[in-house]
Amino acid sequence: MFKKFSFEDISAQNQVKASVQRKIRQSIADEYPGLEPLLDDLLPKKSPLIVAKCQNHLNLVVMNNVPLFFNVRDGPYMPTLRLLHQYPDIMKKFQVDRGAIKFVLAGANIMCPGLTSPGGALNDEVLEETPVAIMAEGKEHALAIGFTKLPAKDIRTVNKGIGVDNMHYLNDGLWKMERLE
Amino acid sequence: MAEKPQPVRVLYCGVCGLPAEYCEFGPDFDKCKPWLRQNAPHLYPDLLNDAKEKDVDKAAEQLQAVGISGAGDGGGEGSSANSGSTSGSKQEEVKRLPGGKIKKKEKQEVVIEKIVRNKRKCVTVVKGLELFGIKLSDASKKLGKKFATGASVVKGPTDKEQIDVQGDIAYDIVEFLTETWPDVPESAIFFIEDGRKVAAA
């Protein structure tokens, strides 16, 4: 999704109302309970929160010029990889095998066989339409953030085609956008 | 409230910006190697071995060079310099895209196309001026002034910017282009006629 993404794609940046800010905080807290104690640090109630609207109904939640979360339409908020690397345990994790890394880093969606093979791992609690962290065999840090298309159990049984949509991956446009002015 | 988890400090590569462990899948692993050797040797034990081998190679080369330099100093230096530069230029020539695809350098050429709209009205599209280092906004202003029509920079297909000029100006745009920007040779200007590329000159 962020394969080509630059400052030009941001159509508007607005400081949001306090009520909207509260709503965003609430939905992030609901989605990532592990992040709740940190939310006061990440999104202080007092300081202004900026939402950048981009093409394709994409929103970036920006705090102090650093993009922290993004979502599509009214979908769930997902952390950026830089944030996820700092707090890796906030998301459920999938793991792909080594052979898939190359393709994922080129922006490919995650196919079922890469998750079910010996190098991969699935978290069986995950249902469809859920954001997950994509880890890689033999690596410590996440390499992508995905949005499941199938429940984990179906991924195992179907074992074919796209299992997880690749939303955000290392070295894509959002990754390179470390700061936003 | 639960205790705050401490943020993990991730080692990001100083060259490509990826976490160090992903450098091998990054855009240019070769360039990251020296940095990795210094800052994250534990992630790539192979590299260290490589480096040692290379050092040995280098030492051998130097020995050879010294041997040659016994015969003539200039020759020895030249050979070692050459070996260094060949490896450098190879990397620059071929730009690797992720996935092992090779990116070709784009040819510098200007393509002019006439698009007919409303039967007797048309738009002249000029593509590729930016390849000559010409500012498109300036160019469109100049074109508009010269031909006394509307000219604008438009995002064309595949995200490339092009200039749309109202009216049929194909007849003397070539002269205008070559005169205003001497960098643009007439041989690099092409027309599209009936879907085929035709050289202007």
From TrEMBL, chain A:
CDD domains from the UniProt entry: MCT1_N (cd11609), PUA_MCTS-1-like (cd21155)
GO cellular component, one term: cytoplasm
Classification via Gene3D superfamilies: 3.10.400.20
Molecular-function annotations in GO: RNA binding
Entry keyword set: Cytoplasm
Record domain PUA: where: 92-171
Any Pfam family hit: Pre-PUA
Protein location: Cytoplasm
GO terms of biological process kind: formation of translation preinitiation complex
Keyword DNA repair in annotation: no
UniProt xrefs under InterPro entries: MCT-1/Tma20 (IPR016437), Pre-PUA (IPR041366), PUA (IPR002478), PUA-like_sf (IPR015947), Uncharacterised_CHP00451 (IPR004521)
Protein name: Malignant T-cell-amplified sequence 1 homolog
Taxon lineage: Eukaryota, Viridiplantae, Streptophyta, Embryophyta, Tracheophyta
UniProtKB/TrEMBL annotation, chain B:
Taxonomy, superkingdom: Eukaryota
Subcellular location: Cytoplasm
Stored InterPro entries: DENR/SUI1_TIF, DENR_C, DENR_eukaryotes, DENR_N, SUI1, SUI1_dom_sf
Composition bias type Low complexity, residue spans: 79-89
CDD domains associated with the record: DENR_C
Tagged with keyword Cytoplasm: yes
Keyword Ribonucleoprotein set for record: yes
Gene Ontology molecular function, alphabetical: mRNA binding; translation initiation factor activity
Comment, domains: The SUI1 domain may be involved in RNA binding.
Protein name: Translation machinery-associated protein 22
Organism field: Ananas comosus (Pineapple)
